[in-house]
Amino acid sequence: MVKSRKKVGILFSYSEGWIGGSYYFINLVHALNKLSDDQKPHVIIVSESEAALDIIKQTGYPYLSYLNSKFKYNIVERIINKLGKTLLKKQFIKKTFPNDAMDVLFGYFEQLFQFEKIRKIFWIPDLQDKHYPEYLGHDIAASRKIQHEKLAYSTSEVLFSSNDAKQDFENFYPGLFCKTYVVQFAVTLPPYNNIPFNDVALKFNITRPYYFSPNQFWSHKNHLVVIKAIELLKQKGINVTVIFTGNEQTGGGIYAKQLKDYVIKANLQNNCLFLGFIDRNEQLVLMQNAKAVIQPSLFEGWSTVVEDAKCMGKYLIVSDLKVHHEQLNKNVSFFSSANYTELALVLEGFINTEIEVERENYENNLVTFANNFLAAVNHI
């Protein structure tokens, strides 16, 4: 008798505002493709738009289906719920998936609370709300505190992307009794090698050598430490070029504008190139041809930028975070995230030298990612 496949729902939507989160779920399905056929679960993409399924289909995963996450209420049900909320602040009629729709639903923790009577695994990539609430907004940070407490002191299941995040959670919510998992993710890159570097260089007016720093333009991504390091080197007569990519309209575009204003004031326009949110394959071509990748963030969960660079065998220059040490044990230089002088010294040390990289079998990381996720799914 053929064993029925586990039905795993993944709550997914594509967002350029948090591109790392979108890539996470795409990479998860890619990793599941590394499992033997009899282990592969049936993956149900749960979303308000069937376009989400089309994105996941590009992974080539063989067992996919779609389920609309937006429940429809008829006019009578809507009236009852409106009266309930007005009079008693309570929704009387709540719809959810049938018990047999899936064995488990996995997704970002804030989005899963609406689904009842179904087993859920809540993904918490990090606890930025505790360390840098000002970058999220205090209303969001307060909301997350309530949700995290609800998870911590319940029978919920919570999946973290790093041991650092799990330890953080345990420190902030001592005595928790939720079930926890750590599943460090790995990436699968699209076939970017068919794009000639010269075409991308011509399009963006790029000359070698350069360093590459791809990050969304949130304040905690700490681009300024890189710019100040470049400024210090230029004062010493050393010209270094760094290319920045990412959505510059993040947070209303204020932070990106502040960075560009600083660059103009310091006369670094030829040293700091801002390309905005560019095509994913072009981004990877630029990463592949960079001298090294710089990840200067003040805070991370498990960095997609770092994993992208590891996957293609690039050297990394990263801020001295616990999670970066957990993520990297070779091909890396660390610097204090607040110390641009230290970063400048690292960059100066690579002037006129070829950076050597020790190759690793990244395929093993993908298999581990898939197996550890499956272990969480199968853990009852």
Please estimate the helix content: 40-55%
Poorly predicted ranges: none
Shape: globular
- Average pLDDT value? 91
Discrete helix count: 16
Question: How does CATH name the architecture of the largest domain?
Answer: 3-Layer(aba) Sandwich
Strand neighbour order, sheet with most strands: 3-2-1-4-5-6-7
Characteristics:
2 domains; alpha/beta; 16 helices; single chain; 41% helix; 380 residues
Description:
The chain is α/β, with parallel strands linked by helices and 380 residues long. The longest helix is centred in the last third of the chain and has 16 residues, at 363-378. It has 2 domains: 7-186 and 365-378, 3-Layer(aba) Sandwich (Rossmann fold); 192-359, Rossmann fold. The model has no long low-confidence stretch (mean pLDDT 91). The protein is 41% helix and 15% strand. Helix 4 links the parallel strand 4 and strand 5. The strands form 3 sheets. It has a 7-stranded parallel sheet. It has a 3-stranded parallel sheet with strand order 8-9-10, with helices on both faces. It has 16 helices and 13 strands. The two termini are 23 Å apart. Helix 10 packs across helix 15 (340-349).
Topology of this structure?
Elements: E1 7-11, H1 19-32, E2 42-47, H2 51-57, E3 64-68, H3 75-88, E4 104-108, H4 109-112, E5 120-124, H5 128-131, H6 133-136, H7 138-152, E6 157-160, H8 163-172, E7 179-182, H9 197-204, E8 211-214, H10 223-235, E9 242-245, H11 254-265, E10 272-274, H12 280-288, E11 293-295, H13 304-311, E12 316-319, H14 322-327, E13 332-335, H15 340-349, H16 363-378
Helix pairs in contact: 1-16, 10-15
